[in-house]
Design brief:
- The protein is α/β, with parallel strands linked by helices and 257 residues long.
- The protein folds into two domains: 113 residues, Periplasmic binding protein-like II (D-Maltodextrin-Binding Protein, domain 2, 3-Layer(aba) Sandwich); 103 residues, D-Maltodextrin-Binding Protein, domain 2, CATH 3.40.190.10.
- Strands 1, 2, 3, 4, 5, 6, 7, 8 and 9 form a nine-stranded mixed β-sheet that branches.
- Strand 5, helix 5 and strand 6 form a beta-alpha-beta unit.
- Helix 3 packs parallel to helix 4.
- The longest helix is centred in the first third of the chain and has 20 residues.
Length: 257
């Protein structure tokens, strides 16, 4: 009979020990469970969003940010197709508009602008000095596929601004793929964004495009309707739109919206 109280005490101690060890689910982020936030973002945002993701994780120790970088058009298709995503950042308003119209996103906000630049290998074997040189005889040029924002940007530059018919040697899936072609010396030049030339450092040489010949694109961001982590998704969007977010973006060469 005297063993029963001892068993009861042991059970209480065991329960309290478990509560202490588990911490009641509170490990420094308001008692929330661990969350994986899925952010779909344009390939040209790779460097900046990676930096912002690391900052976000420091401020939200229970949240891990997983990025899916790629062409905005392809990312939008994945989202409408049911891919699990919490945030979408596009390099083109039109791709974001597609998600708004489908009900997958709402209330997007522009957070940056980008414009075009010509990237050539450091030794510039084709002697490119101006954007018009890309239509020269035998010049091998890489651009993005026409449905991708950087492909539309190239069309706006050559067809609308210069009135020239560019015959690219290759059309790539996204802007980073174009940049890789240039870095490897597989093409004489590539039409990319200002930010991509800056991010590549000494791997490429940039040929600036004058404002009257150049084109730009706005970058909108929004939380997604099917997000299972609405609070964290909105907090990530808020970071991108904040002064801290703007600083990271402008240092990378993006312009303010």
């Amino acid at each position: 009979m005297r063993l029963r109280p001892a068993i009861g005490v042991a059970a209480v101690v065991l329960t309290l020990s478990c509560l202490a060890a588990c911490g009641g689910g509170d490990d420094g982020d308001g008692g929330e469970d661990h969350v994986t936030l899925h952010v779909f973002a344009a390939a040209s945002l790779t460097e900046t969003f990676t930096t912002l993701g690391q900052q976000f994780e420091k401020e939200h120790p229970n949240t891990k940010v997983e990025f899916n970088f790629g062409p905005s058009s392809g990312l939008a298709e994945q989202i409408t197709g049911g891919a699990p995503a919490d945030v979408f950042a596009s390099a083109s308003p039109s791709n974001m508009d597609t998600l708004v119209q489908s009900g997958d996103a709402s209330d997007p906000k522009d957070f940056a602008k980008n414009s075009g630049e010509v990237a050539v290998p450091p030794d510039n074997p084709a002697g490119i000095v101006a954007v018009g040189d890309l239509v020269g005889q035998g010049v091998k040029v890489a651009v993005c596929q026409p449905q991708v924002p950087c492909g539309k940007l190239a069309d706006a530059i050559f067809l609308d601004k210069l009135g020239l018919d560019l015959k690219p040697a290759t059309e790539e899936v996204d802007v980073k793929s174009v940049l890789t072609k240039v870095e490897l010396g597989e093409v004489d030049a590539g039409v990319v964004y200002v930010t991509d030339v800056k991010a590549a450092g000494g791997k490429v040489k940039g040929i600036e495009i004058p404002d009257h010949q150049n084109a730009s694109t706005a970058y909108p961001i929004a939380t997604l309707g099917n997000s299972t982590h609405e609070k964290q998704a909105q907090e990530f969007v808020d970071l991108v739109l904040s002064d801290d977010g703007s600083k990271v973006l402008t240092e990378a060469g993006f312009a303010r919206p």
